[in-house]
């Protein structure tokens, strides 16, 4: 591995100042993704700002009506947290389905939502948009696992399982910069490649994600995360569905449905949410929701299989989330 | 003449199952144990506990935990497979949790407790997992076995009586190119005492 220096900040503010002052510095949480990118020479930081050294930033706590998750909370701790499992099942299920036990023990929530894409062109150091180039090789290349929504100019899919769960739960991200803090809705944190095809989110140089807050769900809320893999374990979602439904018996009062594995950002589907709102969950409604979810899909040469897979997955996830055996 | 079976051979060599630490007492209790640092590379002195022994050592910031274990502490029972956090051969326990030691910098281990395959047996007494791995022919080539054992150890630490499904889920982070997964699952369940008699591999 290339030579580098590890620094242990005492606070997020100190971390942000270090990052702002040194363009060759990078923040690191669990380190699983970052070290792999380093070993593959995809990135080449001279300094790592070790956020774990700050200490105490891995807590999962309730403050009033808000759940607070420290940026350094591990995926393992989130997936086993009693209150998260009970009230925010979609997040516990998403965190519990990331990669492997070893990755979940090391991996942090902030690192999971900010991991870089797993497009094989990016990871193999092709000069693509993500590597600072000006093309996306997947368009005419091997695009089996690429976007069917929101692609262009880059057609990566956002790799995080927890990000769609957080968007569906209406989470907010707290961000520390060198000169202050800001807060942004999870839905606005992620940015399509039209904004900047080299990036997946709005985090600026010299900023670190410090905390994620989630409002208490409305009474009767039920949720689930469905992750479809191309093998039984240990990979990213080919298609994923985060479904959060506010239920009253068999009646769906409101819905938030966010997809993974299909777009360069966690892909919210308002058209699906609208046809569910105020309706009784029936087989017919679930079929129509599945159809709605794939409207406007623009598959590439080798990923049209995602369209029927998504249609069925949305239906299944909504059935599970609703608890209605329609 | 006693016929040599594969099992006896494995028992005899302990391929991958039993790793014994070369005593380092005279070498590295507190003195720097790493004489091969590049002169101008950033270095940090860290304190950590490895297999019950407190150590203080100077490491290059870029060294991974598995590099330090293997190349500087002679704890070569931990293997490097992919070196990318994908195969699980390098699995060790950090503060009781299974992690990929190729995906942790040693400098991040300051103040932590690390357990490797060398710390699994108590003296000459094998861990029940090691005994079960031998009895159930869990290893074939043995390369992934120390990682499989440490993943299993972490699983049983948090869930002493797992179901078959829980064992399968708990071991997903460890690949076996011999594809001996069923034997690994049987061995872990046997060690946990949850193997029902007659369970086919």
Q: Can you characterise this structure?
A:
The complex is a heterodimer of chains A (326) and B (201). Chain A has helices at 12-21, 32-39, 75-80, 82-87, 89-96, 101-106, 109-114, 120-123, 162-168, 186-189, 270-276, 283-294, 306-322, and strands spanning 5-7, 25-28, 47-50, 60-63, 66-70, 172-177, 180-185, 208-215, 221-228, 239-248, 251-260, 267-268, 279-280. Chain A has 326 residues and is an alpha+beta fold. Chain A has three domains: 5-53, Uridine Diphospho-n-acetylenolpyruvylglucosamine Reductase, domain 2 (2-Layer Sandwich), CATH 3.30.43; 55-115 and 155-215, Uridine Diphospho-n-acetylenolpyruvylglucosamine Reductase, domain 3 (2-Layer Sandwich); 221-322, Enolase-like, domain 1 (2-Layer Sandwich), CATH 3.30.390. In chain A, strands 4-5-8-6-7 form a five-stranded antiparallel beta sheet. In chain A, strands 9, 10, 11, 12 and 13 form a five-stranded antiparallel beta sheet that branches. A three-stranded parallel beta sheet of chain A has the order 1-3-2, with helices on one face. In chain A, strand 4 (60-63) and strand 5 form a beta hairpin. In chain A, helix 11 runs antiparallel to helix 12 and helix 12 (283-294) crosses helix 13 (306-322). The model of chain A has no long low-confidence stretch (mean pLDDT 97). Chain B is of the alpha+beta class and 201 residues long. Chain B has two domains: 6-16 and 121-192, [2Fe-2S]-binding domain (DNA polymerase, domain 1), CATH 1.10.150; 25-119, Beta-grasp domain (Ubiquitin-like (UB roll)). Chain B is built from seven helices and five strands, in the order ααββαβββαααα. Chain B has a five-stranded mixed beta sheet with strand order 2-1-5-3-4, covered by helices on one side. The model of chain B is unreliable at 24-35 (pLDDT under 50). The A-B interface holds A 1-6, 31-32, 35-36, 39-40, 48, 50, 52, 76, 99-103, 105-106, 233-234 and B 38, 40-42, 44, 60-62, 64, 83-85, 88, 91, 94, 97-100, 102-105, 107-108, 151, 154-155, 169-170, 172-174.
């Amino acid at each position: 591995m290339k030579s580098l220096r590890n620094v242990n900040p005492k606070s997020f503010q100190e971390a942000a100042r270090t990052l702002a002052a040194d363009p060759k510095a990078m923040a690191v949480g669990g380190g699983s993704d970052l070290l792999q990118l380093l070993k593959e020479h995809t990135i080449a930081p001279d300094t790592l700002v070790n956020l774990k050294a700050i200490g105490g930033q891995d807590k999962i706590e309730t403050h009033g009506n808000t759940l607070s998750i420290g940026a350094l909370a591990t995926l393992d701790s989130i997936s086993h947290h009693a209150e998260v499992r009970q009230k925010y099942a979609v997040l516990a299920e998403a965190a519990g389905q990331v990669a492997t036990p070893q990755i979940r023990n090391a991996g942090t929530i902030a690192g999971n939502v900010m991991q870089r894409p797993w497009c094989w062109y990016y990871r193999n150091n092709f000069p693509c948009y993500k590597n600072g180039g000006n093309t996306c090789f997947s368009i005419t290349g091997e695009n089996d696992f690429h976007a069917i929504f929101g692609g262009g100019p880059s057609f990566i899919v956002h790799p995080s399982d927890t990000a769609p769960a957080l968007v569906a739960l209406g989470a907010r991200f707290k961000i520390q910069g060198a000169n202050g803090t800001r807060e942004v809705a999870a839905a606005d944190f992620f940015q399509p490649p039209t904004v900047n095809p080299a990036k997946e989110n709005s985090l600026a140089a010299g900023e670190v994600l410090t905390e994620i807050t989630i409002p208490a769900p409305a009474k009767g809320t039920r949720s689930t995360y469905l992750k479809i893999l191309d093998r039984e374990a240990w990979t990213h979602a080919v298609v994923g569905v985060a479904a959060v439904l506010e239920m009253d018996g068999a009646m769906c009062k409101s819905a938030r449905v966010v997809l993974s594995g299909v777009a360069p950002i966690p892909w919210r589907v308002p058209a699906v949410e609208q046809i569910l709102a105020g309706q009784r969950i029936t087989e017919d409604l679930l079929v129509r929701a599945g159809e709605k979810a794939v409207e406007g899909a623009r598959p590439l040469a080798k990923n049209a299989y995602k369209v029927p897979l998504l249609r069925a997955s949305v239906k299944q996830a909504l059935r599970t989330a609703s608890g209605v055996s329609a | 003449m006693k016929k040599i079976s594969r099992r006896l051979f494995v028992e005899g060599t302990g391929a991958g199952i039993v790793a014994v630490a070369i005593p380092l007492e005279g070498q590295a209790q507190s003195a720097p144990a790493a004489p091969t640092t590049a002169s101008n590379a950033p270095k940090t002195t860290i304190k950590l506990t490895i297999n019950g022994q407190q150590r203080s050592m100077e490491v290059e910031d870029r060294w991974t935990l598995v590099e330090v274990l293997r190349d500087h502490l002679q704890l070569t029972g931990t293997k490097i497979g992919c070196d990318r956090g994908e195969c699980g051969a390098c699995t060790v326990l950090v503060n009781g949790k299974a992690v990929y030691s190729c995906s942790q910098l040693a400098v991040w281990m300051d103040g932590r407790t690390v357990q490797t395959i060398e710390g699994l047996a108590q003296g000459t007494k094998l861990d029940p997992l090691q005994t079960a791995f031998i009895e159930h022919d869990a290893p074939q080539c043995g390369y992934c076995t120390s990682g499989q054992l440490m993943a299993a150890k972490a699983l049983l630490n948090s869930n002493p009586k797992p179901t078959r499904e829980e064992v399968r889920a708990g071991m997903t982070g460890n690949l076996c190119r011999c594809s001996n997964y069923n034997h690994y699952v049987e061995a872990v369940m046997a060690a946990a005492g949850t193997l029902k008699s007659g369970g086919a591999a």
